[in-house]
Design brief:
heterodimer; A: mainly alpha; two-stranded antiparallel ribbon; 26 helices; 3% strand; B: mainly alpha
Chain lengths: 692, 98
Amino acid sequence: MHLPLDSLALVLPSQAEVMPAAPEGLRLSVMLILGLPLVGFLLNGALALWRPTAKTAVSLIGTGVLLAAFAIAALRFRDLSILWGASPETAPVVSLWSWLPVGDLQVDFAFQVDQLSMVMLLVVTGVGSLIHLFSVGYMREDEGYARYFSYLNLFVAFMLVLVLGASFPMMFIGWEGVGLCSYLLIGFWFTEKANADAGKKAFIVNRIGDFGFLIAMFLVWGAFRTLNFHEVFRRAPEILPAGGALVTAITLFLFLGCTGKSAQIPLYTWLPDAMAGPTPVSALIHAATMVTAGVYLVARANVLFALAPVSQTVVAGVGALTALFAATIGLRQYDIKKVLAYSTVSQLGYMFLGVGTGAITAGIFHLVTHAFFKALLFLGSGSVIHAMHHAYHATHSHEDAQDMRNMGGLFRYLPVTGVLMILATLAIAGVPPFSGFFSKDEILAYAFGRGEHQPLFRLFWAMGATAAFLTAFYMARLIALTFFGRNRTGEEEQKHLHEAPLTMTGPLLLLGLLTVAGGWLNLPEFARTLGSTELLHHWLEPVLAAGNRVSEGLGTLASLPEGGTEQTLIGVAIAIAVIGLVFGLVVTLRAPTVRAHDAPAEVGIWKVLYHKYYIDELYDWAVVRPLVAFSRAVLWKSVDQGTIDGAGVNGAARFSSALGWLGSRIQSGQLTTYVTLFLVGVLYVLGMVSWR
Amino acid sequence: MLLGPSLLVSAILFTIGVAGVLIRRNAIVIYMCVELMLNAVNLTFVALSQEHGLPGQVFVFFVMTVAAAEAAVGLAIILAIFRHHKSVDLRNINLLRG
């Protein structure tokens, strides 16, 4: 284990007091990186409103701004390599303007370019560019082409705010913004009620998580009187007692936010439904970038989590449980995107297992490699769906183009997609030397290593390893059902199956390259023959130094197991992956698969898995229905209609009209009455005057 | 020297007028009661002019002039009402009730 000892000397309090100044030109770069996607959103939004048929312009703007942002980020990355080994306090903060100057609360519209946000910046703009390119081909014939690209650009803009924000509120802007774009894109084809409902579900479930984020923010404000990342993380070890209730509460509420955004138990149910959106959206938002925001948040707040070992255990435990749980559901889904959705939930679980264990680098490493191979898998499935859809469209068939039972033997028709998806499958299953092997193995190794002091982590390791086996199994099943075996598409349809155009296969090829080579970002020590090792680890070291110091003090620092054990673990991991893959292929290909509408009903445990453990039904029964019933009976009928409408609005009207009715009784129209009243009045006045 | 009895007579006349306005229903009778009140006031003016000088007596002429004008207008209105309602009973004339 390489300890960040050399960076300790750099973090002296006197040095930390100095607010770091942004290097020359960084301000402009940050403004461009954030501004370009925003400009793309505005231009494409204008085109969507006034010239929705100008698809060439939309393609150029939509992908152009992203490529430009990526180019700037890459150039900046080269310039900023001075950040190697620099302490987090020297990471530059670019403050654009003062945003919330309210008494003690001073929040600037500021962005922080440090090693961690740089990694995220490159992933978001890089993978984002490829997915934008893919969308040009995939969405070509859609009527909402311009609207689609404007949403996609807006999403990237908010995602960049999220990863670059220099304070909790700044991050929260991005956090909410990507949620909005996710909602807009899930319900992109909103004319079908199911899609609109899926969007609403995602939005509402995320609100529960956002509530946790907000509470955590309030607690941080209460403890620190500041919300800037710099100061909070610098002063956290002094202000918050390690393992104390406050820091545990803060981190657990933050993690509640993560379970919403990153689809962990218990708030994961929105993500599989989010597959209602266009497939590139699933790749970009619901696999590669937005859903990893929670992992990024835990990594960003690593000092706080290091101070709260209980929260770390919760994070790792929920992650391991989610990884296992979602993987079992993935075993029995037939919709190709549903399998990938549960796979994403499961892989996110791994990332949380990593960051919860304290192996932040491993978690971020898996985040990056997952962005590569899962984007590839989703875009590959998009290519498959594209081909299936065209075939069914040509024959006017109404079969489900996403059901794997209607596919089979597609390798002959889609060789490029097929090869690339098989590569991605090997990566996600954890076969060396593909990227997923290194990242997943590192997470499991660290979990096993921490189990030396906390036996609970051995259990988490076992869950993760089981999930790895299931992952290999369901991915092999996906490949076998889609690309091999007998073709079940239909005689007539087979003639129309063909490979996607270059705008779609091109990004796939690039992602394939990254999927294969992504592991070189952070090669482990034992693979030193392949190249320089632990690049990502050293790059991120300064950001993680403070958290690691805290963990070291508490004796909870995650470490790899000793030499011999590590070799054994690697052997076990490879064996699990290979056995899982082979098992999955053999079982799936030998089982008789029939087309979706001829398929028999599921029975026994398969039925439970097919219905996702009936969790949606359980939530519906336990939460949604009582809430709706309560809202209807009490909030609507009693509070709104009864109290506010009845007593409040209509009550005021009734009261004044009653008062008016009383007054009108005096106006009898009888002259005598008026004269009498007049006389009484005069006598009264005269009496008052003379009596004085 | 006759001030006290004069004021007393005028007070009695005025009270009769007020009572008539309040009690009677016939528009003509009420009108006559209003005239009675005006003349009660006139008597007061004249009686008090003994002590306060001529302006009181001059004022009486003004009151009589206005009363004459009022008589013309008032009687015309009563006639118009009679033509419309075939009655001058004020109980029936209550179009402005609330």
